Amino acid sequence: MKTAVLICPGRGTYNRAELGTLARTFPDPALMARFDAARRETGRETLTELDGAARFSQAKHGRGDAAAGLIYAATYGDMLNLSEEIEVVAVTGNSMGWYTTLAAAGAVTPEVGFDITTTMGAMMQDNGQGGQTLYPHMGEVWLPDPTAKQRLMDLVAEVSNRPNHVLALSIDLGGTLVLAGNEAGLAAFEAEVAPHDRFPMRLPAHAGFHSPLVQTVSDAALAHFSPDLFGQPNLPMIDGRGQTWWPGATDTKALWDYTFDHQVTRPYDFTRAIAVAAREFAPDLFIVTGPGTTLGGAVAQSLILTNWSGLTSKAAFQSRQAANPILISMGREEQRGLVTKGP
Amino acid sequence: MDRAAIVETNLRRRLSEGDLPSVAAGAGLSGPEAVGLYRAQCLSRALDLESRAMQAAGQGFYTIGSSGHEGMAAVAHALRPTDPAFLHYRDAAFQIARSAQVPGQSALWDMLLSFSCSSEDPISGGRHKVVGSKALNIPPQTSTIASHLPKAVGAAYGIAAAARHAPEHECFERDAIVMCSFGDASANHSTAQGAFNTAGWSSYQSAPLPLLFVCEDNGIGISTKTPQGWIEASFRARPGLKYFACDGVDLYDTYTTARATADYVRTRRKPAILHVKTVRLYGHAGADVATTYLSKAEVEAQEARDPLIRSAALLSASGALSTTEALDIYEKTRARVARAAAEAVTRPRLQTATDVMASLIPPARACAPTNGPSDEARTKVFGSDLRSQSEPQPMSRLINWALHDLMLEHREIVLMGEDVGRKGGVYGVTQKLSQRFGPDRVIDTLLDEQSILGLGIGMAHNGFVPIPEIQFLAYLHNAEDQLRGEAATLPFFSNGQYTNPMVVRIAGLGYQKGFGGHFHNDNSVAVLRDIPGLILACPSNGADAVGMLRECVRLAREEQRLVVFLEPIALYPMRDLQEPGDGGWMRNYPAPGTSVPFGEVGQSGKGTELAIVTFGNGTYLSHQAKAKLGGGVRIVDLRWLNPLPVEAMIEAVRPCKRILVVDETRATGGVSEAVITALTEAGLPATRLAAEDSFIATGPAYGATMPSRDTILAAAAEVMA
Prior knowledge:
The complex is a heterodimer of chains A (about 350) and B (about 725).
Chain A: E1 2-8, H1 21-25, H2 29-41, H3 47-51, H4 58-61, H5 64-81, E2 86-93, H6 97-104, H7 110-127, E3 131-136, H8 146-160, E4 167-173, E5 176-181, H9 183-192, E6 201-202, H10 215-224, E7 237-238, E8 244-245, H11 252-265, E9 268-269, H12 270-281, E10 285-288, H13 294-305, H14 314-323, E11 327-329, H15 333-336
Parallel strand pairs in A: 1-2, 1-10, 2-7, 4-9, 10-11
Antiparallel strand pairs in A: 3-5, 3-6, 4-5, 7-8
Helix pairs in contact in A: 2-7, 5-6, 5-7, 6-7, 7-10, 8-9, 10-11, 12-13
Chain B: H1 3-17, H2 31-56, H3 72-78, E1 85-86, H4 92-99, H5 107-115, E2 131-133, E3 138-141, H6 149-162, E4 178-183, H7 190-204, E5 211-217, E6 220-221, E7 224-225, H8 230-235, E8 242-247, H9 251-268, E9 272-277, H10 296-304, H11 307-317, H12 323-344, H13 353-357, H14 375-382, H15 385-388, H16 395-409, E10 413-417, H17 433-437, E11 442-444, H18 449-461, E12 465-470, H19 473-476, H20 481-487, H21 489-493, E13 502-508, H22 526-529, E14 534-537, H23 542-559, E15 562-568, E16 602-604, E17 610-614, H24 616-629, E18 633-637, E19 640-642, H25 646-653, E20 658-666, H26 671-681, E21 687-691, H27 709-720
């Protein structure tokens, strides 16, 4: 038996390579049928249709409701796929991965989690203001560089003080900052940082999540979803502030409020969530469920920033992975088999 | 089998068998709140047990636990995380429960780091096991003798005072209350009794004091039992201090009573004491075996009241948690703590003296720049005194003017002490300050030096720059631990995160002609010279006193240093040097903005035949002697007695052929011991003339045991021969 913290990914993890993931991995046809029925009722293409499409289309698959739904289902399915030799001791997630976390931990039913994910994705697509851009503060070898991070944060503060410029931290994502802003704010930031590799990288079809730019989405969500949908989780959940919501000890009204207010309009500290996951749960494994492989790097960087278990650099992390993996990305076939009972 | 194992075996058996005490459903807490507190209790217990396992494995260094005191989780829940808490060392459950009120905390990990003395321990940096957290407003505490109580009184006073004069570095919420906990045994300590008395004395005369004392009464202090009913009997009817009591093994009762007590303190701004009846499980600390001084029946009676078993019963009766779930939470918590401990013990520890000492001196803090008080403000405050400032004056008046200017310039300066207000000090040094700056900035305290220093320390926690006065040096000694054990250790135990900068003024040293004897002429500063991080300043004339006091305030305000400013009483009124009426020891008031830098020595004369190294009254007497010794003499005034300005002193004496050290403190433990050592280590032989190892007499022999002009002349002649 190995202990594990599950990590549910956010948007951007279901792309061309992930097409067909649900068909290959989702273990519960009845549940998928319910997800599909829910989408059909709202006039949306079903997950089965999207996942089974012949070609990936950014316009179709990348839409807020579609991308979110696909990622949610693949992530939730992966939790069901876990081997009985894995004892999940806590669940956390990144950004919209928080909605998956709620379902994976049992604080909402899988259907409600799916509804929240899809609805929030659609609201974000339809009503969310602004956009997001990414820029790293850790170099190629993933050494902590607090000065570089502070410089970027100072630039964010400086840009946000300019007239008609909106820019704020959206997600503290390991070695990368995700920033939310209006076009002027994002463009000003992107113009001032040195371009390298893919960065600064604007995220397509993303609104200014985790910032006041999406206050209307938060308002609408609070009005749309009832607190009664939330119950006690079965597993501890670590949110985007590093706060743990414990089974039996959760104020479900506060959880509802956090989910649709603070979580939507304030920065999401994924790095802190991973630090708390490590320090308070000390699992044998950190398992990134769901499609894609992009969140693994942020998890590893967060563990390095936490100085966890001797992980002090990319080289130390890779060495640990080769000898005795601490991070499992279920989107990687060679790692997936280490923790699953089935596909 | 040790008692810790027995207690755990009983807990597991009783929870698994449902063998629980018969209790009624609790009230006042929702189900999730109660379960959250039970989780905090389980974590506290698991940490206690893990600390013992870590010690057995040579990886942990602290085993004084919180087992039996887990009800303190409910007290934390009744308070706000912005309420500063000065905690008893058995309050892990309080800190854990409070950590749930502030997102992003990792209380489990942090405590494990403190057990293992890791340099990554976020509060002490691996220096000491303390209960504390900057994020949770818990200043680090390790006191076993209630020495933290006086400063809790001061902190509460400082919260109320900030509403009238907000200091630049104010850090407590205006509607916060101060919580301060301690055990039933330490409640008897004179320091604790002084704090209760001060709190009551203040409240009795309607001074706002939002202070919640919590006495955790487990009925025993190591091996000595607290008399049955003693805590209640001694606190039930104290003037100015309202008494509340609860059963500390009952989460619901503890929460509702703590909430009522906190509400009383918060709304009335009056102090109260919450008497929490707890139990102590498995002895005082890991090495203490309670059955060597208690009967087995007594030990088992305590164990039968295990708060975790009671909580499980209450939660079950309230429908919040089944007994099976309660056991599951306990087991999962134990496993979680064990996993984290395996990682925590791999974290680095302090290695070198440099590592350990890195936080003896706190970091500097940014202060708003100031150009000093305006001419207009000075004219308004000084009035007719302003004209006198162009004329030479004795030291007491110059210090008084310096205090005026400093209080004008820095609104966060507050004076406190016996008779400093209306009377203006027994020697007039604080005259008119109360009238000019108000009684809330010049506080007449009760007669208790521990409370005076505690008031300063506590107010400094909230951003004030206190200038407490100890009326006579001999009066410091009953309160010295407030500087040694509390004020000086705060940056050390908090890795520089908490500070209590202040300038303690002490009137002291000998030579008052025929007045006072020992208690008013104490000539021992040994207790102030070996406190790491403490700066001890001692001026010898009025101009130096002004410049040094300005520097001391800067050191406190900007560099957050703990400073003692020792004022030689006999020099307060001194006007003349050689002849009556010569005015040789009066000085002009130094221009505002000037000061004497920390570590700079004073030098009088450029002679190279003889250097006289001295301070305070010795400087005055040496100047008297110098007139007869001629131009070959230079006098080096140390000014700073801790740390000694060794480099500056050596630079000043190096050109001289001979060195005489004149020391008005005692030969044993006096300043000259260190001065001679420093000179010798620098290859500079020196002779010393120090006071006898004696107390000071009253009457004509008042100066008989200390250096005089004549003995200095004799010693100089001998050295020069």
